[in-house]
Design goal:
The complex is a heterodimer of chains A (272) and B (263).
Chain A lengths: L2 E3 L5 E3 L4 H28 L2 H18 L11 H29 L10 H14 L2 H12 L3 H25 L3 H9 L4 H35 L8 H9 L3 H29 L1
Antiparallel strand pairs in A: 1-2
Helix pairs in contact in A: 2-10, 3-4, 3-6, 3-8, 4-6, 5-6, 6-8, 7-8, 8-10, 9-10
Chain B lengths: L1 E9 L5 E10 L4 E5 L6 H8 L7 E6 L2 E2 L5 H8 L2 E4 L11 H6 L8 H5 L5 H13 L15 H13 L5 E5 L7 H18 L2 E5 L3 H7 L2 E6 L2 E6 L6 H8 L5 H13 L3
Parallel strand pairs in B: 3-8, 3-9, 6-7, 7-8
Antiparallel strand pairs in B: 1-2, 1-4, 4-5, 9-10
Helix pairs in contact in B: 6-7, 8-10
Classes of the chains: A mainly alpha (272), B alpha/beta (263).
């Protein structure tokens, strides 16, 4: 009991009673012990010689990578364009597929909470749980290497993410606006277009640019497994230890990501 | 014109919101529905246009029985019942014009409504209504830019452009200040008179109801406890509807108000 009676009849209040205080301490004790044990375990499994060596090696690579090989940029325009296209087209396809999935998954719009909603949720979880790099590997085996595999990989990976954010937005809409449109005698589709869509439009736009932003980053590595884009140049430069090229590619990726962040911030600001 | 026969609504939680309500509303009559919170006023209104499905009983709108209609026929009947809401229930991110025109959704096809190609006659009527409620130059504003009273006027336009025979009005003034409340009530009652509409108005403000309507229904725990003219609302009657309280201040205030507003 947090509230105790004192001897003079007044009442005292404490945040925790005695049992809660002790269990709190016990949890901290156990937590610390586990942390120390794990630390020890990792330490034993580490070859510390390589770790002590690390600053020197890193310094060595950095000096080799500087300055970037600027002339190499002529060969990067095409791959960076591919990367942008993979991200943009992948996001668009994902959104087109995510919208119906979201409506089927939202508790207030699903046609059947028992049958269809679980299927929609399964699609969301399944597509989200596998990394786009792994989707790309699978798709390269199926449809061959190239930009197309990258687009599809990005699209599949993004469906779950977009659908999840969208269906949460659908579940949070103001029900009276929907009620008002229904009361006019509007059909099911009209209720959707007038009562629901305007309410979720800001979150749709936010989700779209947010995912596009993430996809630009994800598509830069897809080339590592042969799914098109600038990752291909990155992996070949790494393999040939061409450090000045690697640094230039990393710089380009950085610029692309900054630009995409800027664009998505602008779009979000304009729509909401 | 509207007839409720033994209307019962039991929610899935077991709460009985309506316990066999009988009610007949003739053409063109404006009646106020008063009663404590939880008495079933909102449920009653929503059972008429089946935003809430009644558990049993019948609802007759003219010659049509509403409770057994399938969705297509129900939509056609809903066009004849305009609804006005407490928190206005405008689609906040659409313009005033789009909100008004949404009252025509029952009449236009999906595609035309989707690309906002409403018939010219609908637009004429929308402009006429906006002019009538004094919001003509607000047509292009977004609904969330308006004040409470203005939003409720848009809500009234949306209900009227349906060309209804009956208005279902759910606490139209609960979110408005006293002056705007009166203006809105007066507007609703005037429009009903102009167009010969019947209306059921849920309202908490007894004095305001007395000022404007011809008939008052008192609802208590899902049953009709009073049905009569506004003058019949004595302290005894109010006690029967709401429970024990000193009602004299409420009733006196009404008389003063009536003296002050002869219209």
């Amino acid at each position: 009991m947090p509230v105790n009676s004192l001897s003079d009849g007044r009442k005292a209040w404490q945040r925790r009673n005695r049992v809660q205080t002790f269990s709190q301490w016990a949890m901290w004790l156990i937590g610390t012990a586990v942390f120390v044990y794990c630390w020890q375990h990792i330490s034993d499994a580490t070859t510390w010689f390589f770790v002590w060596d690390a600053p020197k090696i890193a310094d060595d690579i950095l000096t080799r990578a500087m300055p970037p090989r600027w002339s190499y940029i002529d060969q990067l325009w095409d791959p960076i364009w591919d990367t942008l296209n993979i991200a943009t087209l992948g996001t668009m396809i994902a959104l087109a597929l995510a919208v119906p999935v979201a409506f089927l998954a939202a508790r207030n719009t699903t046609p059947s909470a028992l049958l269809i909603r679980p299927i929609a949720l399964l699609i969301i979880v399944a597509t989200r749980s596998i990394n786009s790099l792994i989707w790309a590997l699978l798709l390269i085996a199926i449809i061959g290497p190239g930009v197309f595999a990258g687009i599809i990989a990005i699209a599949i990976r993004s469906i779950g993410f977009c659908a999840k954010l969208l269906y949460e937005a659908i579940e949070e809409i103001d029900a009276t606006q929907v009620e008002a449109i229904t009361a006019t005698g509007a059909s099911r589709w009209q209720v959707m277009a007038y009562g629901i869509v305007p309410q979720i439009l800001p979150s749709f736009a936010g989700t779209a640019v947010f995912r596009w932003d993430i996809n630009i980053r994800e598509s830069t590595v897809l080339g590592l497994v042969g799914a098109g884009g600038i990752g291909l140049q990155l992996s070949s430069s790494l393999n040939t230890l061409a450090w000045p090229q690697v640094s230039l590619i990393l710089l380009i990726i950085l610029v692309a990501v900054i630009v995409s962040e800027w664009v998505s911030a602008k779009v979000r600001g304009a729509i909401i | 014109m509207l007839r409720l026969e033994n209307l019962v609504k039991t929610y899935r939680t077991g709460d009985q919101a309506l316990k066999g309500v009988h009610l007949e509303v003739p053409q063109g009559q404006v009646l106020a529905l008063i009663g404590p919170s939880g008495a079933g006023k909102s449920t009653l209104i929503r059972c008429i246009n089946r935003l809430v499905e009644p558990s049993s009983g019948k609802v007759w709108l003219g010659e049509t029985e509403l409770t057994t209609l399938r969705s297509g026929a129900l939509r056609r009947e809903r066009r004849r019942m305009g609804m006005i809401f407490q928190e206005y229930a405008l689609v906040e991110r659409l313009t005033v014009m789009e909100n008004v025109l949404s009252g025509r959704l029952g009449y236009v096809g999906f595609w035309r409504s989707f690309i906002r190609r409403y018939p010219q006659s609908d637009m004429d009527e929308a402009f006429r209504l906006l002019d009538r409620v004094g919001l003509l130059d607000m047509a292009d504003k977004r609904a969330d830019e308006l004040s409470g009273g203005q939003r409720q006027r848009v809500g009234i336009c949306r209900a009227l452009i349906q060309d209804p025979a009956l208005l279902l009005v759910d606490e139209p003034t609960a979110s408005l200040d006293p002056k705007t409340s009166r203006q809105i009530m007066r507007l609703i009652c005037e429009l009903c008179r102009e167009r010969g509409l019947a209306a059921i108005i849920n309202i908490h403000d007894v004095a305001l109801a007395q000022m404007f309507v011809q008939r008052v229904i008192g609802l208590r725990t899902g049953e009709i406890a009073f049905d009569g003219s506004p003058e019949g609302l004595t302290a005894d009657v109010l006690t029967r509807i709401y429970g024990e309280e000193d009602w004299h201040a409420t009733i006196e205030k009404v008389e003063e108000d009536e003296a002050e507003v002869p219209a």
